[in-house]
Amino acid sequence: MKLQGTAMINEKGHLSIGGCDTVELVQKHGSPLYVMDETFLRDNCRAYYQAFSASGNGEVIYASKAFMNLAMCRVIEEEGLGLDVVSGGELYTARRAGFPMEKVYFHGNNKTDAELQQAIEYGIGHIVLDNHYEMERLNNIAGRAGRTVKVLLRITPGIECHTHEFIRTGQIDSKFGFPLPTGQAMEAIQAVVECNNLIYDGLHCHIGSQIFELESFRYAAEVMMNFIEEIHQKTGAVTSILNLGGGFGIRYTESDEPADINDYARTVLGAVQGEAEKRGLTIPKVVVEPGRSIAGPTGTTLYTIGSVKEIHGVRKYVAVDGGMNDNPRPALYGSRYEAMIANKAEQAAEEVVSITGKCCESGDMLIWDVSLPKAESGDILAVSSTGAYNYTMSMNYNRIGRPAVVFVRDGQSAVVVERESLDDLIRNDRIPPYLQR
């Protein structure tokens, strides 16, 4: 497992993160345990801010679906980033954290009336329209509230990138956005500029996730700038914002080779500026939405190893006290991870094993065929790059409680999400009168 951020091997031969011994973290907070390296997290935010926002023509908004809670909202605000939300729950969390609502963008392909009303009531900066049905409803809701709302239109530009089919969203056949190649995107632009209560402010596109080829982002920028020119020619509307979404890839295993954030910024900003100058257009503000690439590498999940089962000549299974409940990505996407035994961090690998979770599900496999020192019951297994889409996608299958989340920094740990208790699991259960006794 590659050490990232503040991770290191301490004098005890244990994995340390944020100056905290991971074995001691499990003793103190229990396992499974999500550990977020706060210094690393802030460094990633600052790298994006310097690469995009410092230029004066860019804005970075954190995609909160990757990892969100009250503490995370505070970190994002302190680092000068905006926020992308996709539900009333994420929006409510941001408001409760005191996040500035004018820096919030609201996404989603099927926002409810209640969520749209909530967004208007909170006074958020922009709503990203995904379809005509939503456009009409938002215009009516805003009118009844006596408000005008700044909107972006989500466009599917017809770009297919090399990533998993479930996280590839820029192609025409997608549940998201107005298709560009079919002419429906232009029809949507013509419709929105006629809405009395909506202010057209720009475009959004997102071509997919876990992308390593910068050429994909450059091409998306060129396609969208071509559309911006067409919009101006046919409607006279000025596109002030071009939101190019997220999707910047991170390292999960040694086969992943992420690009540099500064190269990413130069590619995107340069493409937009060049296309604007070539076409005689005002350069729009370029917005990007990193989520995974900010939070993902900063997270490590700690597990306690339980049973070890060897099928001679076939495979050795090492079971941990978590699994698909706290990381469903391997089951959903076939995602791959690296791991180490945290209390044997200095020891050389001597066997190949497969890491299985504790759920009553044969698909509950976290890692197939990983090289480790001899794994024994009671060892602490650390799985890296679990900061994105792990806590936020966790669940209660088999009535297993979600793990706690801690931030670590300067030798201190702080709980930012409490571990779910058994009482938490039945908090919303109700027994109907005819079953009561």
Could you explain the architecture of this structure?
It is built from twelve helices and 21 strands. The strands form three sheets. Strands 4, 14, 15, 16, 17, 18, 19, 20 and 21 form a nine-stranded mixed beta sheet that branches. An eight-stranded parallel β-barrel has the order 5-6-7-8-9-11-12-13, surrounded by six helices. The chain has a three-stranded antiparallel beta sheet with strand order 1-2-3. By secondary structure, it is α/β, with parallel strands linked by helices. Helix content is 29%, strand content 24%. The chain folds into two domains: 160 residues, Lyase, Ornithine Decarboxylase, Chain A, domain 1 (Beta Barrel); 184 residues, TIM Barrel, CATH 3.20.20. The relative contact order is 0.16.
